[in-house]
Design brief:
Length: about 190
């Protein structure tokens, strides 16, 4: 297995997952305007799953175009609440609104990964996990948010399952690496 990977993402969690699984990871973020892409695809009737797949592919292809034969991984995760995407918050007020929407409900976290070479997708995979958030009071939600620093809040959405976010849920069904944004088992199977 070639363990050199270019990651088309600035996600520290994804980089850590790859490195913890024996990959030598070089980070080259794709820097695409994800919100514009999501908006456009939503207007065309795309599902959250299709949006996640398209974003992962767009990132991987963009970075791999300029690299001669190197393996590039692009990834994207979206929160799907009743068929609607919940995007990352841009303020603490928005984060609180997101938590209120998810409060007491089941939502899905969809993670897609795309492997590209020379600007072309050579493999992709999408996985979905189901998370049931506890029914919490506004003061409980505010207390949770007060413990999350701005960098993590704006980079990884309103919860990090590998950290304090686990306490928000009464039930989690699915692969933890999918929830953290990178279904590593399937990536390793493909790359081996």
């Amino acid at each position: 297995m070639n363990n050199k990977i270019v990651l088309a993402s600035k996600s520290k969690v994804r980089k850590n997952i790859l490195e913890n699984n024996g990959f030598n990871c070089v980070v080259k973020p794709a820097n695409i305007d994800e919100e514009t892409v999501k908006e456009s695809l939503t207007k065309e009737g795309a599902t959250p799953l299709l949006i996640s797949k398209n974003l992962a592919e767009l990132k991987a292809n963009k970075i791999s175009e300029g690299l001669n034969g190197e393996v590039v991984i692009g990834a994207d995760s979206v929160i799907d609440l009743d068929g609607h995407i919940i995007s990352k918050p841009s303020s603490r007020k928005e984060a609180m609104e997101i938590l209120k929407k998810l409060n007491g409900k089941i939502h899905h976290l969809i993670s897609s990964v795309c492997v590209s070479k020379n600007g072309q997708m050579i493999w992709n995979y999408t996985d979905k996990a189901s998370l049931t958030m506890k029914n919490m009071s506004n003061s409980d939600l505010e207390e949770y948010l007060s413990k999350i620093n701005d960098e993590d809040l704006y980079a990884y959405n309103v919860y990090q399952i590998e950290g304090k976010g686990r306490a928000l849920f009464s039930e989690i069904k699915g692969d933890e690496s999918t929830i953290m944004g990178l279904p590593i088992k399937k990536i390793k199977e493909f790359l081996s």
